[in-house]
């Protein structure tokens, strides 16, 4: 059997840290003077005590390293347990959520999904709004570290292709996971501060700028307003676009940039493909919007740039209700959410590098059909890709669509119509946020769903965020043997 | 460059044969005495003359064998050109279709899709109805031969796994493609006659039994009535279920059965997985129908058995409008259409063996994550699968979903709503027939679509029927080089 103590120790510590961060919304509530601060004091004490007790009770089993199954249990465990504590203030506070709703909201926060079950955000206690932002911000940094340190090691969904890289770049100087995490955190904090500053400069209040910078850099997409980013049309949208894009580029390139080498960032094929594709999509949507809705150019550019970037990066802010733009835009936005950003960032979904590998493989396949006896090798950035890695990527892709099908059918079983079920499953699995249709579309809210649907979506967010295999491997009997 | 003459010769011959079969609906129209027979006489003469001229003009380039690119051109060419001639009676006759509509109907026939643009089938000249059945019947046998002889040779979408088999089983006695085709044809004709006889025995008219046996065994799904198979509720549904299932089992097993060896049929893992899965799905739907609609058991069993079999085999008859059953059924039917039957039959869609290979690959992947240094090999029927074959299957799967996305977006661009666009693309690519929604659902009709949408669907039917790669390989520049 497993020795769960080292896992419990790390999770306990993280819970305690989560509890400590609750002091921030408490201070904000104190300053607002509505008496709401005690909610965060209570939650913080409960969370820190629980975390401390768990860590203490497991500390006698501390070891130097974790093996593969233990790493998997840790990764999944963190994302299952932390939302439970993150949900506390949402239950006790002004949002008055039931346990399931609060867990949904906290899961949606920590997985950076951004689907919300809270209505009436505009008048909500500031502590609650800040807490939602903090959940996403912490989730975001957690994901970058997971994507750079754990997933390549676990060979999940082809992430092993970045295995050598993270350690090559930083390995000699920073050989350990915690140190990689530290360097990434510095960059993450810097990006967040830069984003916040820009939001303040274009006229956002300091509080809004803070929370929205948290949810921009984490590509989380929670907003302080029911109408989401629709509250900040104009220059703020361009700022958001810039930082959403920066948030989904590979963070390892920023480490290199900080060390004085900007070329790898510019030469990274993921970055080029991502930016190029976004540019093409924006051009198409601008053209279509100007033709079909006779929007003036600036509005068409801004709305398509903002909403496309928001969906493709998996942020999920909405500034316009694109459900009303027409069928082409609806279908396009549905499929664009399945693209995602670059690996090793806060992005979720299928991700650019997987498409690059898949298309490289498809090209080879077509060559082989044409010339059965030729020798062709799929390549990534010029280097041949090991068949095993390619296989991982394909298995990920297959599993993604099979899971999407199963989640959709499960959701439809709770009575949701086809579009809501399908787009709900997709938006949860890609951690994007908004779905399609009146109920959960960009101008909708997840509060109206029934409990079974919320439960299924919680699972889908978790599975998507952990790149599927990390969760599914635990469903095999072999995992629990020896 | 290619020498197109051997390809033209074969296509010319097939056109002439198609023209000759037009004599049958001519005779039926003569017997009906409505004067409609001249339509088929004209069409037959034009078609046979055109085919004969093409074959003659190419006969000087006749060679013994075709190379790979020529085989690909031939396969695609047949399915592009034959519907043009198949469309003739539909344009000239009582159905009075425009060229695009007639081409759509003929393509839907020959690819065994079964989506129709004709309304008022109930009073239509019998020749037209028979001709639609003949188009599907010919398409069906064409597909079995293509799937057994050409696709394994072309290594398309993992079909190479059946390469050795077809030739091992029949190779020693029947080494040549035409002889395989002959033996398969005997079985195909026998199944059709058996189906027709059963339909007559349970009370269908001889004419209806003939046409519906044609469209059952080809899993085509054209019917003589606007309400499709809803006209024949009761025992006829069970007969249809039996023959739809027989039509999607691997035909090579029937060859073995005829030669006195029935065990391979019973032991084929594709057959077992297919029948097992169908049984589970039927049980689930019966349970759900009885609970939610309080159907009596026999009705629930019959309706779920018939409609599920119809969709999973890609036949596409409808006996009940399952759009009204509720969201669970709608979502389920959408995804079930993506399963398909067994390879080497008249079925289309993704097919059972691909899922078997994919899940085998997923299992290995999960084992590798758990135990990185273990040695695991994906297997099919106990035998290790070459990585290249596995790769082909995965590329097929990826390409299928990417194509589905592109076709959906293209359809939505013509103004179709999301569900119609997505389900339209899916039903065309899987050659099933009905989509979802009011317009193209089981009680709908494709006549109401605009021309661009019809054009896109024609392409999607073709691409799906030719297992994608056969078409896409022609889009690469390398294909056309030397
Ligand atoms: K998001
Ligand atoms: K069909």
TrEMBL record, chains A, B:
K(+) binds at residues 112-113, 220, 315, 431. It comes from the Bacteria. InterPro entries: Cat_transpt (IPR003445), TrkH (IPR004772). GO terms for cellular component: plasma membrane. It is found in: Cell inner membrane; Cell membrane. It is a multi-pass membrane protein. Keywords: Cell inner membrane, Cell membrane, Ion transport, Membrane, Metal-binding, Potassium, Potassium transport, Transmembrane, Transmembrane helix, Transport. One of its GO terms (molecular function) is metal ion binding. This is Trk system potassium uptake protein.
């Amino acid at each position: 059997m497993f020795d769960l103590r080292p896992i419990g120790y790390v999770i306990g510590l993280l819970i305690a840290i989560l509890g400590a961060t609750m002091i921030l919304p408490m201070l904000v509530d104190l300053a607002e003077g509505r008496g709401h601060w005690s909610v965060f004091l209570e939650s913080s004490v409960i969370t820190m005590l629980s975390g401390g007790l768990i860590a203490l009770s497991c500390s006698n089993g501390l070891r130097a390293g974790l093996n593969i199954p233990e790493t998997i249990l840790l990764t999944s465990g963190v994302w299952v347990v932390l939302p439970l504590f993150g949900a506390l203030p949402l239950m006790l506070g002004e949002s008055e959520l039931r346990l399931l709703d609060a867990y949904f909201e906290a899961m949606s926060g920590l997985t950076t999904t951004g689907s919300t079950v809270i209505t009436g955000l505009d008048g909500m206690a500031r502590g609650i709004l800040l807490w939602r932002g903090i959940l996403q911000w912490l989730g975001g940094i957690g994901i970058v570290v997971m994507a750079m340190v754990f997933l390549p090691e676990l060979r999940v969904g082809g992430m092993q292709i970045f295995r050598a890289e993270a350690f090559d770049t930083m390995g000699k100087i920073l050989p350990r996971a915690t140190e990689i995490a530290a360097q990434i955190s510095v960059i993450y904090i810097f990006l967040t501060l830069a984003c916040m500053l820009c939001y303040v400069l274009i006229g956002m209040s300091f509080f809004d700028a803070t929370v929205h910078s948290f949810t921009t850099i984490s590509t989380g997409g929670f907003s302080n307003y029911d109408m989401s980013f629709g509250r900040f049309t104009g220059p703020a949208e361009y700022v958001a676009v810039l930082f959403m894009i920066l948030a989904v580029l590979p963070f390892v390139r920023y480490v290199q940039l900080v060390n004085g080498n900007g070329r790898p960032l510019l030469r990274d094929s993921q970055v080029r493909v991502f930016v190029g594709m976004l540019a093409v999509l924006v051009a198409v949507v601008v053209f279509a919007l100007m033709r079909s809705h006779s929007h003036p150019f600036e509005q068409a550019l801004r709305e398509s740039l903002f909403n496309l970037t928001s969906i493709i990066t998996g942020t999920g802010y909405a500034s316009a209700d694109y459900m009303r733009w027409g069928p082409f835009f609806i279908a396009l936005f549905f499929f664009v959410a399945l693209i995602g950003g670059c690996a090793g960032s806060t992005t979720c979904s299928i991700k650019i590098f997987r498409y690059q590998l898949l298309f490289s493989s498809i090209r080879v396949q077509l060559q082989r059909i044409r010339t059965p006896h030729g020798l062709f090798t799929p390549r990534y950035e010029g280097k041949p890709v090991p068949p095993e890695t390619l296989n991982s990527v394909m298995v990920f892709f297959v599993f993604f669509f099979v899971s999407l099908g199963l989640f959709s059918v499960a959701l439809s079983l709770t009575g949701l119509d086809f579009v809501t079920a399908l787009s709900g499953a997709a938006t949860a699995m890609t951690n994007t946020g908004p779905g399609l249709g009146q109920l959960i579309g960009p101008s909708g809210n997840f509060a109206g769903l029934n409990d079974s649907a919320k439960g299924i979506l919680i699972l889908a967010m978790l599975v998507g965020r952990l790149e599927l295999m990390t969760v599914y491997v635990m469903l095999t009997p072999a995992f629990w043997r020896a």
